[in-house]
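Subject: design request, 336 residues
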């Protein structure tokens, strides 16, 4: 009995020593899960310090953010998969995921090596799955995305956000990022608080907000820049009739990246493939004219997304992922 007790005590002491040693090695974890460390401070999981923990799989598993018809994107990425195979010297297979939460779990468990995550779920993938974003779809001069813009009539007296105090401003819908969540997250820091400094009314859609401003129904409206541009290009509005008094940093689209524990030499080959690949005409059509992967960093290019998440009560932790999974399950159930 005494020997068993002694052995148990020794095992517990060794476990504490190992845990302490691991904790000492990790000087900074930030908001990352306890599985990961961020000693370099870039907000993403560091590569393992122990080379024996590097992964160098013979087959790489790749996927893109889940959609209603996964086959569309599986076909769209087929040429890139072949390019990635040549660059890495490995077989690359496409793994279909049914939800954003499932995609995060697949990378966390090690079943997924390279992936494209939607803008919002990217934070969950970084914090909970060791995902390292490196690129988004883009063009020679920048990445594909859109801005939150505040539009007013060109003949109005409003020149800055603070000029809208006491006015009527059209938000689109409660769940809209650029039409509601982003203004509520970003404007207070600029001296304008929705519902307090101006009266919020919901128009329902971005184009309805824009037309409402044009017709004088609203004094201003926060809308997505790409919607405004498309309406102007289609001749639905004359852009000279409007003034843009605020433009946010660009919101990125889905992030492409890799698992943090892949072998460094393999990571460099993967990054090289993303940097040099050019989209086929079919891919350009599928992805609204984007012709390449444009390099980004999570720290710089996702800051505006993180700010919005923080101010709207979205936390990139296990509890937040559970909430997202529940919402996705509810949406799928409604469609059945």
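Subject: RE: design request

Done. Sequence follows.
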């Amino acid at each position: 009995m005494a020997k068993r007790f002694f052995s148990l005590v020794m095992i517990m002491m060794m476990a504490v020593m190992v845990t302490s040693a691991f904790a000492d090695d990790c000087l900074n974890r930030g908001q990352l899960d306890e599985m990961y460390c961020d000693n370099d401070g870039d907000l993403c999981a560091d590569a393992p310090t122990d080379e024996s923990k590097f992964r160098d799989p013979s087959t790489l598993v790749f996927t893109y953010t889940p959609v209603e018809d996964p086959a569309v994107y599986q076909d769209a990425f087929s040429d890139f998969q072949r390019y990635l195979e040549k660059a890495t010297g490995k077989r690359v297979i496409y793994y279909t995921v049914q939800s954003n939460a499932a995609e995060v779990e697949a990378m966390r468990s090690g079943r997924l090596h390279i992936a494209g995550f939607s803008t919002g779920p990217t934070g969950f993938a970084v914090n909970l799955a060791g995902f390292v974003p490196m690129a988004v779809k883009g063009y020679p001069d920048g990445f594909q995305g859109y801005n939150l813009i505040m539009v007013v009539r060109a003949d109005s007296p409003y020149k800055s956000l603070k000029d809208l105090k006491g006015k009527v401003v059209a938000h689109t819908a409660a769940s809209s990022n650029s039409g509601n969540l982003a203004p509520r997250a970003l404007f207070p820091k600029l001296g304008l608080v929705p519902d307090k400094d101006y009266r919020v009314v919901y128009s329902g859609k971005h184009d309805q907000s824009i037309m409402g401003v044009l017709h004088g129904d609203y004094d201003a409206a926060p809308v997505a820049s790409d919607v405004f541009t498309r309406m102007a290009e289609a001749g639905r509005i004359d852009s000279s009739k409007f003034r843009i008094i605020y433009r946010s940093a660009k919101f990125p689209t889905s992030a492409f990246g890799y698992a943090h524990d892949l072998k460094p030499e393999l990571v460099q080959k993967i990054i090289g493939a993303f940097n040099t690949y050019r989209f086929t005409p079919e891919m350009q059509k599928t992805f609204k004219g984007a012709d390449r992967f444009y390099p980004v960093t999570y720290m710089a290019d996702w800051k505006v997304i993180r700010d919005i998440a923080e101010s709207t009560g979205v936390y990139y932790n296990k509890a937040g992922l559970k909430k997202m999974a529940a919402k996705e399950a509810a949406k799928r159930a409604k469609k059945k």
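The first helix runs from residue 2 to 25.
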